[in-house]
Amino acid sequence: MTLTVRSATPSDLTELARLCWSYRDILVARSTAFPTIVETYYAKDTYAALIADLPSIHARPNGDILLAELDGHVVGCAMYYPLDMPGVTEIKRIYVDKAARGTGAGRALIETAMKRARNDGYTRMVLDTIAPLTEAIALYERVGFSACAPFYEPDPQFAAYLRFFDHPL
To answer: Is the full-model pTM beyond 0.90?
Structure first.
């Protein structure tokens, strides 16, 4: 088993879109207690437009889109970009295909993003997630992320359902 993490290229956009839609599917499946959260933050039309715009949102030199490959097959993604706070970047859409979970791909994506963000001059990485993504939260904590105050003003109806984490770089 060979695991690698690399920056996405224009030829990866179909695979990136597949991973991002799979990520959304997990959010839908895990948000049965708050089904409107997915439609609020990930409505299909606006999410499709966001996916198409990911290469510009996460463009170098201020961000990056990372893909994990397992034996030459794309199995996961993560991406980061700057926030309107000095030295702070947000990691987004960390996702690994179900068949590749437990291989270290998620950890490798996060650790690579952290290293690259540090090299890009960032001093802090933040992320948000939803409470039912317990496996992801456990991974974030194993990598060294700690719970933090929200870094944006969450919709009050979802505030108790969201979790915020940060890590110094």
So the answer is: yes
